[in-house]
Amino acid sequence: MKISPVSIKRQEFQKALRGYEPQEVRVYLDRLADDVEKLVTELDSLKKENDELRESLADFKKIESEYKQTLLKANESAKSTLDSAKAEAEKMIREAEENFEVRNKEHIAIQKTLEADIAILAKRKDELLSELIKIVKEQGELAGVNTSDIPQQKFYEDDIIPGTERYFPTKINPDPEEK
């Protein structure tokens, strides 16, 4: 006989002298039936979840197999590509060695031009900083702020006036030789 919540609730017992209290037995059987019903429901839910997990596992095993095949093909392709890349790199190195002198002369000329441009930009930067300091002082005087702490020319991170950091989002760091 299979025990179910319903069979527990419907169970009848013969009456006998000196037997158990029928009401207590009924209450106990009702509680037992409720617990069995919960367990049966939980078991069904777990079986369903188990079936879903088994299906997912089968899907993942299929995907894993496909990934393995893809990785094998990718490895073969990568090896072939690497061999081609090595041959191409060797060719490029030979060509680069052959053209080194020509390119080196071009780079030296570009370097000289850049150095001249950098010098011009550094001078312009100093001019702009001086103009900025002048404007800040003028505006500070208009606002009634003491501007005597503002440096006259080049200023760096250490020279920024306390409380004005928000106006200088980029830090200007000095050359170690200048300071």
Compact description:
71% of the residues lie in helices and 0% in strands.
**Low-confidence regions:** none
Cα gyration radius (Å): 44 Å
Bulk shape: elongated
Structural class: mainly alpha
Counting DSSP H or I runs of 4 or more residues, the number of helices is 3
Q: Span from first to last CA?
A: 98 Å
Number of domains: 2
Number of strands: 0
Provide the succession of SSEs. Answer: HHH
| Sheet of most strands | none
Helicity, as a percent range:
over 70%
- Mean pLDDT level: 82
Keywords:
179 residues, mainly alpha, 2 domains
How is this structure best described in words?
The chain has helices at residues 5-10, 22-98, 100-143. The chain has 179 residues and is mostly helical. It folds into two domains: 5-98; 100-167. The mean pLDDT is 82.
Secondary-structure map:
Blueprint: H1 5-10, H2 22-98, H3 100-143
